[in-house]
Amino acid sequence: MPPKRPGAEALWTAVDGYFGDLLAPRDERLDAALLANRQAGLPAIDVSRLQGKFLFLLARIAQARRILEIGTLGGYSTIWLARALPPEGRIITLERAPHHAEVACANLSRAGLLDRVDLRLGRALDSLSELHASNAGPFDLIFIDADKPSNPEYLTWALKLSRPGTVIVVDNVVRQGEVLDAGSSDADIIGTRSMAELMAAEPRLSATVLQTVGAKGYDGVALAVVLN
Ligand code: SAH
Ligand code: DHB
Ligand code: MG
């Protein structure tokens, strides 16, 4: 008898563990951040280890020196992105929930990254408008990972804060395939679909979607570059 095959989700998680251990090995600071997030009661919606490494690699490939993140949570993805920066590089990360921001601050401090991270507390749409007004752009990489209903607006702001070559990543665009439901009344799905249609219609963007499976289930990321 061949060994019993795990169910699909268990298999994806095991493969995530196999490649994670090889290519994105655990370290004290990342583990401490995840532990602190769970102990503080934050939802377990941080990117996975391999997804964090993917963001790190995108930032390195783009040679990013200025990164914008929308949706900090406990700063797990922020740590991956900040680690990809050169010493003079900076990441601005936007978070609405004071409790999340507090936990993130402690995690980033423990990770020795506070000098590279500028955490802005408040509604992301307000912070984005302030960033634009103060000429904070252009950013080299923008990671959109906050409330999904606002994704069309976040994409529009991302374009305003970009230059040709800017990489834009939008998390959670597949949502177990629910994105296919054109008649959905779920605001997350409506926001995701509008964002995708905006992306498709925008002549300044060239984009694709990568479907993902793993420890975080079945989802996907949209990846776009701003054209000349
Ligand atoms: N990028 C994180 C996960 C972010 S979860 C990681 O992978 O580790 C989404 C976060 O967006 C939550 O912390 C939530 O509080 C925040 N958020 C939701 N709506 C927001 C808004 N309007 N403005 C700013 N942050 C928001
Ligand atoms: C949710 C949000 C996320 O950013 C994520 O990575 C996974 C799930 C959510 O709102 O359910
Ligand atoms: Mg996400």
Can you describe what's shown?
The chain has helices at residues 8-23, 28-39, 49-61, 76-83, 98-110, 124-133, 151-160, 187-201, and strands at residues 66-70, 90-95, 117-121, 141-144, 167-170, 205-214, 217-226. By secondary structure, the protein is of the alpha/beta class. It has one domain (8-226): Rossmann fold (3-Layer(aba) Sandwich). Strand 6 and strand 7 form a beta hairpin. Helix 2 packs antiparallel against helix 5 and helix 3 packs parallel to helix 4. The structure holds S-adenosyl-L-homocysteine, 3,4-dihydroxybenzoic acid and magnesium ion. Residues 45-47, 71-73, 76-77, 94-97, 100, 123-124, 145-147, 150 line the site of S-adenosyl-L-homocysteine. Residues 45, 145, 171-172 line the site of 3,4-dihydroxybenzoic acid (DHB).
Q: Which residue ranges are poorly predicted, with pLDDT under 50 across at least 5 consecutive positions?
A: none
Secondary-structure element order, N to C = HHHEHEHEHEHEHEE
Structural class by sheet pairing and helices: alpha/beta
Number of strands: 7
What is the CATH superfamily label? Answer: Vaccinia Virus protein VP39
Provide the residue-averaged pLDDT: 97
- Helix count, per DSSP? 8
Strand content: 15-25%
How far apart, in Å, are the first and last alpha carbons?
Answer: 58 Å
In helices, the fraction of residues equals 40-55%
Highest-level CATH class: Alpha Beta
Query: In this structure, how is the largest beta sheet organized?
Result: 7 strands, mixed
Number of domains: 1
Bound molecules: S-adenosyl-L-homocysteine, 3,4-dihydroxybenzoic acid, magnesium ion
CATH architecture annotation name: 3-Layer(aba) Sandwich
- CATH fold-level name: Rossmann fold
- Using the alpha-carbon principal axes, give the shape: globular
